[in-house]
Design brief:
223 residues, mainly beta, six-stranded antiparallel beta sheet, globular
Length: 223
């Protein structure tokens, strides 16, 4: 159900009912973005992943692609948001099946909508959750393809030079929240913006709950 979109950062909601994948995680080497770990699955397959060097990844088994077979889910980074990688069983082995992610770190605070066949990613980036990146994905074989994406962030624009010949800096306006919803129909790789709106955060009638409901409504309309 769409109520899962309100469960920002709830780890219990992400892994409810899932079984632990067991031990067998080993740190192999450090990288510029964390550390390389090796996880040995119960069937003996070795799975390699990159995670936070300060915190060993936590793994569990869960059917994330709704085919009735448990897959491997790895919690790789935990901070303001929890980021996960999926390794889906293809009939012979576990295959890495994580999209690039809205924040470049995998699926944020993921949840599953088995009825509609969707995987949801929801990164809370500030303003009590109003600054956010919410992605709705659908399985295409062993890959997750975006269906809809909501991005809401502080308004920004490029600052031009005095003579207007070039732009040299990005200027942020913390009084304005700009939200867009991008739809990804079949064959449209970059998607198309189907809704956008700016909200004045300092307006007398500003109501965060109403803004969130309006953004959520735009994201899920027709799905």
């Amino acid at each position: 159900t769409w109520e899962v979109l309100c469960l920002l950062g709830s780890l219990a909601a992400c892994g409810a009912g899932a079984e632990a994948a067991g031990s067998g995680v080993e740190k192999l080497a450090l990288t510029g973005g964390g550390a390389i770990y090796r996880y040995t699955a119960p069937d003996g397959q070795e799975i390699y992943l990159v995670a936070d060097e300060r915190q060993e990844p936590v793994l569990h088994r869960e059917d994330v692609n709704f085919d009735g077979v448990e897959d491997v889910v790895a919690l790789t980074r935990l901070g303001a948001n929890a980021f996960y990688d999926f390794f889906v069983w293809d009939g012979q082995q576990y295959v890495y099946a994580t999209p690039d992610g809205l924040s470049g770190s995998g699926l944020a605070n993921y949840s599953l909508d088995a009825e509609k066949g969707y995987v949801l990613s929801h990164a809370n980036n500030g303003l009590a959750g109003l600054e956010c990146e919410v992605g709705i994905y659908r399985w295409e074989g062993l890959e997750l393809a975006p269906v809809r994406v909501l991005r809401a962030e502080t308004s920004s624009r490029w600052q031009d030079s005095p003579d207007g010949s070039y732009s040299f800096a990005i200027v942020y306006d913390n009084r304005i929240l700009r939200a867009t919803v991008t739809d990804y129909p079949d064959g449209v790789y970059e998607g198309r913006v189907i809704w956008e709106k700016e909200f004045e955060l300092e307006a007398e009638d500003f109501d965060g709950a109403e803004v969130w409901e309006e953004m959520r409504g735009a994201l899920t309309a027709g799905l």
